[in-house]
Design a protein that fits this description.
Layout lengths: L14 H12 L3 H4 L1 H7 L3 H29 L3 H12 L5 H35 L7 H13 L1 H20 L1 H32 L2 H8 L7 H17 L4 H6 L9 H28 L11 H12 L5 H32 L6 H28 L14 H27 L2 H8 L5 H25 L6
């Protein structure tokens, strides 16, 4: 099988740009509002060690599988899977797996845009308000006001979507690459500087112990599950990104080392965020063990804790600027997955495909934003539903716990068992040495078995 020389979407001009881009998509809100709480609740350093094992045995093999498809065919998942399957005489239904991944990316993209709207509104409030004390009462009032104000949420949603669409419409070389080169290093520097400044004022000792101290007695099966799930959902939720970006990675650049570097950069941000969160919590005398992961952490607990600092407004501006950058880089990557898949159908230019996808997303976002007021007013058992129909939360959970693992499992099975191994080695630039001997079992056996265990647990087939 001859590997095409160039992708339809453009080409990366440097390996660092590719590392920043792949890390920029995976550095999401989960690093800030979920990872710190999981690490603290499940044994600190013990959780981190197990999480690292799952990154090597699950996340990195999945990324390499996607990179193998993208780089071998210079196409996104739908077209790449179809071409490889056709050349091998396999069923053409593999194309449907690719489109399922694109659909998951679209759903995740919509959610990221909505949360980005909240972060943008909070950032504007922190900068523009003449006097605003981010205590618990004020935070609750501001957040409730944003949820009830559909027009304001839709405004920030629209600004974020338009900026991402303009970036993606210019392609990888002229749009995505310069953006990732600028925002990802800036995001890391600001996060590290913020953690250092908070540590200077409040001290790092207690937070350091909370995050890094080895407490194996607190791990348990719950910690094992949490580590595996976070390794999957925090980095692999953007199914198709590694394929779309890998399709534009020139042959002269390695894949395993660049993917590993992106993974390490994402993990670094998560560790810095964990230290930052628990330095704030411990320094302000707040009960760290009762912290709730999710929006409540970054829109309530963290601003409340930062309110006691002498430079609380500047700190909040820096924090929400980082959150907004993290959301924006993720949005750009997810939008590229959807747009590039549409472009490869051969009927629309990149500009028109971007405009079409952005319009569909805006209409869906307007529907969701306009429904938030009704969700807030719903009675018990009626929340998060639309017109008495299927629960939105139920749809989200089904996508997260069933569709994403199932699509990831299908990709691993295809690359491990259906894709010619010489084609995979050529795409990943692996010789038949210890690296190939190590990664092939990961692709064929270890990572699929982990995903099967997750699906079995969701189906209630496992007792834990």
């Amino acid at each position: 099988m001859v590997i095409p020389k160039r992708s339809l979407q453009g080409e990366w001009t440097g390996s660092f740009a590719f590392v920043f881009a792949l890390a920029g998509v995976s550095i999401g809100l989960g690093n800030v509002w979920r990872f710190p709480v999981l690490a603290a609740e499940h044994g600190g350093g013990a959780f981190l060690l197990l999480y690292g094992v799952f990154l090597i045995t699950l996340t990195l093999p999945l990324w390499l599988a996607e990179l193998g498809i993208g780089r071998s065919m210079r196409r996104t998942l739908p077209s790449g899977l179809e071409r490889i399957a056709r050349e091998q005489g396999s069923a053409p239904t593999w194309r449907a797996v690719g489109w399922m991944a694109v659909a998951v990316a679209a759903v995740a993209l919509l959610g990221q845009l909505l949360v980005g709207g909240w972060a943008g509104a909070y950032l504007y409030r922190a900068v523009a308000a003449p006097v605003l004390h981010f205590d618990a009462v004020t935070n609750t009032a501001v957040f409730a006001e944003l949820l009830a104000d559909a027009e304001r949420l839709l405004l920030w949603f629209t600004l974020l979507l338009v900026a991402a669409a303009l970036t993606v419409s210019r392609g990888i070389g002229a749009g995505i690459q310069p953006l990732m080169r600028l925002l990802v290093p800036a995001m890391v520097v600001v996060m590290v500087a913020l953690a250092w400044a908070v540590g200077q004022e409040l001290g790092l000792a207690r937070a350091w112990g909370t995050v890094f101290e080895l407490r194996f007695h607190e791990l348990g099966w719950a910690g094992v599950q949490a580590a595996g799930e976070h390794a999957l959902f925090s980095l692999a939720v953007a199914l198709g990104v590694a394929t779309a970006f890998g399709a534009a990675l020139p042959d002269r650049f390695p894949t395993v080392s660049t993917a590993g570097a992106a993974l390490a950069l994402d993990t670094l941000v998560g560790l810095v965020a964990a230290v930052l969160v628990f330095t704030l919590v411990a320094g302000q005398g707040m009960p760290g063990g009762g912290l709730q992961a999710g929006p409540a952490l970054i829109f309530h607990a963290v601003p409340d804790a930062m309110g006691g600092l002498s430079w609380s407004r500047q700190g909040l501006v820096a924090l929400y600027a980082v959150l907004l950058m993290a959301v924006f880089t993720t949005v750009v990557g997810l939008l590229e997955v959807v747009v590039s898949a549409v472009v490869e159908q051969g009927r629309l230019s990149r500009a028109r495909a971007t405009a079409m996808v952005a319009t569909a997303l805006w209409l869906a976002g307007a529907l969701v934003a306009g429904s938030l007021r009704g969700w807030l007013d719903a009675g018990p058992g009626e929340g998060l539903s639309m017109n008495g129909g299927l629960s939105l939360m139920g749809v989200t959970e089904f996508v997260a716990w069933v569709v994403i693992p199932a699509v990831a499992l299908a990709l691993l099975v295809f690359v491990g068992w259906c894709m010619p191994q010489e084609t995979l080695r050529g795409a990943l630039r692996l010789r038949e040495d210890w690296r190939y001997t190590f990664w092939v079992p990961m692709l064929r056996y270890v990572a699929p078995l982990i995903l099967l265990a997750l699906l079995a647990r969701v189906a209630g087939l496992l007792p834990w």
